Amino acid sequence: MQQLSRAARLILIGAPGVGKGTQTERMMKRYPQLSSISSGDLLRKNVRDRTPLGIAAEAKMKAGVLVPDTMILRLIINELTNRGWLTSDAIRPYMVSYASEAMPNAAGVDEIVMPSDSRASGYEYSDEPSASFILDGFPRTATQASQVDRLFPVNFVVNISTPAEVIMDRICNRWVHEPSGRVYNTTFNPPKVAGKDDVTGDQLTRRHDDNPEVWKARLKGFEETSLPLLEHYDKLGVLWTVKGNSSDEISPKLFREFERRFAASS
Ligand SMILES: *[C@@H]1O[C@H](CO)[C@@H](O)[C@H](O)[C@H]1NC(C)=O
Ligand SMILES: *[C@@H]1O[C@H](CO)[C@@H](O)[C@H](O)[C@H]1NC(C)=O
Ligand SMILES: *[C@@H]1O[C@H](CO)[C@@H](O)[C@H](O)[C@H]1NC(C)=O
């Protein structure tokens, strides 16, 4: 278990299927001071708990429109504020209370505009090692990254680089037995009978995301938005690229670099 010397605020960027979730889990296990701040999880939690923000976001989703960036930012701000990692002395509008009467006009939350100057935003962030987190799901674009910059400086961004054909192979070779979650790999771990689960004999299926056409479309979208995002962080001097064909190849390199930057010398 490795202790950190200062707060790490980190983002992993990589193509769909590259294994960001795997790396996140491994890092959180290895560095107990590191949390995951996932916009998707926060969104689901707020919808479930019927917070004003959750209700407003749900209305957007039901209407088939994207949840606006300002709402996602508020979810993140609220979470960090609740954890005591972000404090605001000046600006009240962002301090959304979870009590519904505090915001009668919940549907209007997306109309609030972020302040344009960074330090004028009135936020202070904690640099305590325990205030370390991996920001997951947001930002996805350079514009969103600029919005995050106004709250706190992200100080380590990892460009996870695996050749597209390697991810593609992995996806095409992966078959699952849904009821049990058993995963087969037609190259390295094939089922005894092609297309059938070893234990039950049930038909194996592909996960929706493992459909090559679905994946190619997602990759294209990722490439378009991630380029400016990577450039944004490259300019800020916090980008680091790691290459590897598998999660097992990437993890040790990632740990080494992360520790070089953040680990407390013991
Ligand atoms: C991120 O990784 C990709 C894939 O290896 C590489 O082509 C690109 O130059 C990297 N981006 C930056 C900004 O370093
Ligand atoms: C199959 O296993 C090999 C070796 O462990 C790995 O490199 C490859 O990514 C795996 N493919 C899938 C689909 O899990
Ligand atoms: C990773 O995959 C690429 C493309 O298949 C291959 O050229 C390269 O040698 C592989 N690297 C390693 C370390 O296995």
UniProtKB/TrEMBL annotation:
GO biological process terms held by the UniProt record: ADP biosynthetic process; AMP metabolic process; GTP metabolic process; ITP metabolic process
Chain spans, region LID: 173-210
One GO cellular component term: mitochondrial matrix
Main location: mitochondrion
Keyword match GTP-binding: yes
Broad enzyme group: transferase
EC id: 2.7.4.10
Subunit structure, interactors included: Monomer.
HAMAP family from the UniProt entry: Adenylate_kinase_Adk, Adenylate_kinase_AK3
Protein name: GTP:AMP phosphotransferase, mitochondrial
Organism: Coniosporium apollinis (strain CBS 100218)
